[in-house]
């Protein structure tokens, strides 16, 4: 995933045919690699766990992990945790993205003063891990969902803002000139020029934001957990840990990894394929 | 200067205003240190020009002498520090689809729009204040015609990154012309193309000019290109030196680059640079 | 494509190979660390973990006075302070710790899951309790669905005591489980005292005392009421390998503990000076906390049977086992009643070390 500048210059005369077939094959290939890799790792894992004499409390065999996975899935516990996690992450990412769009919109419309304020804001807050804010967030927002949501928003908004403002600064000057030439208003400029131009940066930022949101959720829940009945996968992991259910712990980690891969492939890859890669804005 | 004035007067329609009139225009980036273009820092000094409808004027000059800045001043993208620019006798406002710019750079096309949509874009936005009945149909017809004229109808579903450089510039030209501007401001539009493509597009541009009768301001550093295309050639001096010169090109069209008269003009302009 | 597949397979195998290769190595490392961690000095190490809180006070004294080191000259003693019981448990499982101090329920959970460890001593009894800052919350029955109760973690002694109280008062042990918020003690106290987020906090000294000293707070239920009797709050736990292979280390730990408790009771000024900086409390306040009703440092272990029984009944434990299986030579209250003084042979040594303490001054 490399985002090149927006102007992907082709050598004159070189005409690309439409390449859906090739893209499809690449895609299949990547899936195959993922699955093959996973299968190999799992096989090595099972063999090691069974025959190396390591305590099952340290490395339970895969079969027992799957047992724990199916039983928690069957009882609905895992489903609830996954649902809770996804919902709060979607909300966090959506709020963070809205905030980042507002901030970068301000950078674009507000001129240099606004840009400087936002730059400082990002410079101070971006390096701050959400977990470091946790004690404060608890004081301000109490415990439970709101606090976790705030931590997630914090972890999403700054990297996304950095990406978006970078993208806005990278909009080719000539496209501005063309848009001015046709008297596009401020709002039209936003929707017709800035938004599509910064889309590669937006997607890259969302990818980072998504990963950070997961980290924030899991970390926050493992520090202060959640109200018993309602928690996400971080809470699930935490419970497995305090009750020393190593199999469940592994099952939880597997679930998080699988969700990560699924969203990467199904959401971000296809989003990129249907937009910026189709437009030749990134490869 | 005297030659320039003479030429301007000769082209001024009796009793009316010229389409575009620049009077002693000066401009410098130096006192605007926040501009990102500071590195270029070209200065336009005391520039005058008069263009009537249908004129084809080329501007040649050494690199860094402010050709792009001049074009932006005449298009309304920048405003002169001294002097004034008049459009049909009125002070020039902000950029407007009646004066369309075409750039050298290939990134002037919207990468997320297909060729068709890139061309249609200008039509949509230039006509937004004069809404017509059946506009959509009129639009499609005009876009299709224009694409046929520049030879891109077959490529109308391509995205810009799928086009060659020549096709990209054809698209830019089509986008500029589809809204029927009074003046086309071109900033070395063929500068990034190889010699063969460049010549092809020069022919295309002349054909379009003869068909649509727009006034053209064509900036280039290629003397032979200027001679091939323009009725009048403005030669800008090196940065810092004083005056620009305007030369009327009195050669029959289509022009033959190997003709002795052509070479004579070439030598004369070369001597001024 | 096929080449790529093969590359992936190879990469995994190499990775696995390197892990497998390091596995036996780390195993032997780990054994070495038990036996001869620094062969050049020919010394053994003893790694002991504690946590933060007033209930661990004897360990602070032991550490500051070098009591354990004095009892175990042939060992290199390392102290670790870990943030929570789960971390201690995991470190012991990984072979990084020989002994640690924790509440009884987390120990039982580990034992139940197959950890090879046992309790070798008690450390303290302490007043635990559920503190609320809301006037209306006088008993467990007053808690509404949106009232939040902060405690360290599920399966902690605070959680099990709350469950016991729930069973006693509400008839159902897990009645309030969906209102729990997991927080460490300082965060829980801040949340309670700031009036944000939690309605009550099940906590232990010194947080219990600080919370009760604040305005508008009250005790909803005490640990003793919940349990229906006395119980040991913190116990010392050692790995079976330490218990079997290094009985001298266990003996030394017990003796050093007895000396620390002796100092706590008999050298109050010196102890207050040391602990007040440790806990960031005024000496006077601290003295009050140490004399708080129910605060008691002793090596006896009480309440294990009741915990096992309750946790088994509530499915926190999967297997059945008896008190005897989890205790390694500890003093139990029944024995104590028969014989007021624990293991009289330790008393002379205690006096010796008391002199050692004054020598230091």
Please state the overall shape of chain C, judged from the principal axes of the Cα atoms: globular
CATH architecture of the largest domain in chain C: 3-Layer(aba) Sandwich
The largest pleated sheet of chain C is described as: 6 strands, mixed
Low-confidence stretches of chain C: 20-41, 335-361
Q: Strand order, main sheet of chain C: write it out.
A: 2-1-3-10-4-11
Distance between the termini of chain A: 7 Å
Uncertain stretches of chain A: 1-19
SSE map:
The complex is a heterotrimer of chains A (283), B (273) and C (361).
Chain A: H1 20-51, H2 62-74, H3 77-109, H4 111-125, H5 130-141, H6 145-169, H7 173-181, H8 186-197, H9 199-224, H10 233-242, H11 246-274
Chain B: H1 2-11, E1 20-28, E2 43-51, E3 56-60, H2 67-75, E4 82-87, E5 90-91, E6 99-102, H3 115-126, H4 135-150, H5 165-178, E7 183-187, H6 195-212, E8 215-220, H7 223-229, E9 232-235, E10 245-248, H8 260-272
Parallel strand pairs in B: 3-8, 3-9, 6-7, 7-8
Antiparallel strand pairs in B: 1-2, 1-4, 4-5, 9-10
Helix pairs in contact in B: 3-4, 3-5, 4-5, 5-6, 7-8
Chain C: H1 2-35, E1 44-50, H2 57-65, H3 67-71, E2 75-81, H4 85-93, E3 99-103, H5 104-112, E4 117-125, E5 129-132, E6 149-151, H6 157-170, E7 180-182, H7 185-193, E8 200-203, H8 207-213, E9 218-222, H9 223-227, E10 234-239, H10 240-245, H11 247-266, H12 268-279, H13 283-290, E11 296-297, H14 304-313, H15 323-326, H16 333-338, H17 346-360
Parallel strand pairs in C: 1-2, 1-3, 6-7, 6-8
Antiparallel strand pairs in C: 3-10, 4-10, 4-11, 5-8, 5-9
Structure description:
The complex is a heterotrimer of chains A (283), B (273) and C (361). Chain A has one domain: MetI-like (MetI-like fold). Chain A is 76% helix and 0% strand. In chain A, helix 5 crosses helix 6. Chain A is globular. The N terminus of chain A is likely disordered. The longest helix of chain B has 18 residues. Chain B starts with a helix and ends with a helix. With 273 residues, chain B is α/β, with parallel strands linked by helices. Chain C is built from 17 helices and 11 strands. Chains in contact: A-B, A-C. At the A-B interface, helix 7 of A face strand 6 and helix 3 of B.
């Amino acid at each position: 995933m490399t985002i090149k500048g927006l102007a992907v210059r082709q050598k004159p005369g070189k005409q690309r045919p439409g390449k859906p077939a090739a893209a499809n094959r690449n895609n299949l290939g990547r899936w195959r690699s993922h699955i093959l890799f996973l299968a190999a790792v799992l096989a090595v894992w099972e063999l090691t766990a069974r025959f190396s004499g390591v305590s099952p409390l340290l490395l339970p065999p895969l079969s027992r992990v799957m047992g724990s996975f199916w039983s928690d899935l069957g009882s609905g516990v895992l489903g609830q945790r996954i649902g809770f996690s996804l919902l709060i992450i979607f909300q966090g990412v959506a709020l963070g993205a809205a905030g980042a769009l507002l901030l970068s919109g301000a950078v674009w419309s507000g001129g240099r003063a606004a840009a400087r304020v936002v730059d400082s804001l990002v410079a101070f807050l971006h390096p701050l891990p959400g977990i470091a804010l946790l004690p404060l967030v608890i004081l301000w927002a109490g415990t439970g969902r709101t606090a976790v949501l705030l931590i997630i928003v914090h972890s999403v908004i700054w990297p996304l803002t950095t990406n978006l403002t970078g993208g806005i600064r990278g909009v080719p000057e000539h496209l501005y000139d063309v848009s001015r030439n046709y008297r596009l208003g401020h709002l039209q400029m936003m929707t017709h020029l800035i938004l599509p131009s910064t889309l590669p940066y937006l997607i890259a930022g969302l990818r980072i934001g998504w990963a950070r949101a997961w980290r924030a959720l899991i970390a926050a829940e493992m520090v202060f957990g959640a109200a018993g009945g309602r928690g996400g996968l971080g809470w699930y992991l935490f419970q497995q840990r305090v009750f020393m259910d190593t199999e469940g712990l592994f099952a939880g980690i597997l679930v998080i990894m699988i969700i990560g891969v699924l969203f990467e492939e199904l959401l971000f890859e296809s989003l990129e394929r249907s937009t910026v890669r189709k437009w030749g804005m990134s490869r | 200067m005297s030659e320039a004035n003479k030429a301007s007067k000769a082209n001024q329609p009796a009793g009316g205003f010229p389409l575009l009139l620049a009077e002693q225009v000066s401009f410098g980036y130096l006192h605007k240190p926040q501009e990102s273009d500071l590195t270029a820092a070209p200065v336009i000094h005391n520039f005058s020009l008069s263009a009537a409808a249908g004129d084809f004027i080329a501007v040649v000059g050494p690199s860094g002498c402010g050709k792009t800045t001049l074009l932006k001043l005449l298009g309304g993208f920048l405003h002169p520090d001294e002097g004034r620019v008049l459009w049909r006798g009125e002070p020039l406002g902000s950029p407007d689809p009646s004066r369309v710019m075409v750039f050298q750079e290939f990134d002037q096309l919207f990468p997320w729009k297909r060729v068709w949509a890139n061309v249609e874009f200008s039509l949509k936005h230039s006509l937004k204040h004069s809404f017509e009945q059946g506009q959509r149909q009129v639009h499609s017809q005009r876009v299709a015609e224009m694409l046929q004229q520049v030879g891109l109808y077959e490529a109308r579903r391509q995205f810009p990154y799928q086009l060659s450089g020549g096709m990209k510039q054809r698209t830019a030209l089509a986008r500029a012309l589809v809204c029927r501007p009074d003046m086309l401001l071109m900033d070395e539009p063929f500068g990034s193309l190889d010699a063969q493509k460049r010549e092809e597009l020069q022919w295309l541009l002349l054909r379009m000019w003869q068909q649509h009768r727009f006034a053209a301001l064509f900036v280039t550093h290629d003397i032979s290109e200027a001679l091939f295309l323009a009725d009048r050639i403005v030669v800008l001096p090196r940065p810092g030196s004083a005056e620009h010169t305007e030369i009327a090109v009195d050669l029959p069209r289509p022009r033959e680059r190997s003709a002795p008269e052509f070479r004579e003009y070439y030598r004369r302009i070369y001597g001024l640079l | 494509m096929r080449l790529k597949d093969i590359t992936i397979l190879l990469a995994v195998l190499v990775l696995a190979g390197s892990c497998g290769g390091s596995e036996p190595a780390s195993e032997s490392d780990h054994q070495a660390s038990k036996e001869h961690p620094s062969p050049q000095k020919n010394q053994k190490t003893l790694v002991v973990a504690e946590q933060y809180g007033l209930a661990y006070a004897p360990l602070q004294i032991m550490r500051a006075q070098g009591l354990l080191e004095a009892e175990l000259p042939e060992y290199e003693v390392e102290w670790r302070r870990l943030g929570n019981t789960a971390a201690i448990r995991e470190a012991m499982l990984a072979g990084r710790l020989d002994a640690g101090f924790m509440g009884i329920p987390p120990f039982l959970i580990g034992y139940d899951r197959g950890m090879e460890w046992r309790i070798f001593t008690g450390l303290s009894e302490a007043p635990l309790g559920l503190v609320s800052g809301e006037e209306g919350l006088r008993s467990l029955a007053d808690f509404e669905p949106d009232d939040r109760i902060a405690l360290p973690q599920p399966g902690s002694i605070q959680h099990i005591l709350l469950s016991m109280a729930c069973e006693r008062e509400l008839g159902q042990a897990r009645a309030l489980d969906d209102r729990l918020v997991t927080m460490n003690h300082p965060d829980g106290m801040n949340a309670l005292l700031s009036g944000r987020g939690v309605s009550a906090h099940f906590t232990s000294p010194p947080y219990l005392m600080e919370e009760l000293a604040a305005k508008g707070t009250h005790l909803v239920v005490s640990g003793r009421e919940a349990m229906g009797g006395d119980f040991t709050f913190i116990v010392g736990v050692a790995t079976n390998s330490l218990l079997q292979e290094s009985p001298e280390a266990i003996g030394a730990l017990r003796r050093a503990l007895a000396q620390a408790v002796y100092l706590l009771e008999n050298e109050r000024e010196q102890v207050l000076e040391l602990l007040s900086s440790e806990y960031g409390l005024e000496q006077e306040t601290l003295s009050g906390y140490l004399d708080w009703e129910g605060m008691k440092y002793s090596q006896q272990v009480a309440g294990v049977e009741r915990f096992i029984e309750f946790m088994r009944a509530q499915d926190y434990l999967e297997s059945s086992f008896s008190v005897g299986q989890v205790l390694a030579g500890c003093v139990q209250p029944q024995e104590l009643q028969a014989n007021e003084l624990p293991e009289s042979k330790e008393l002379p040594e205690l006096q010796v070390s008391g002199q050692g303490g004054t020598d230091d001054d």
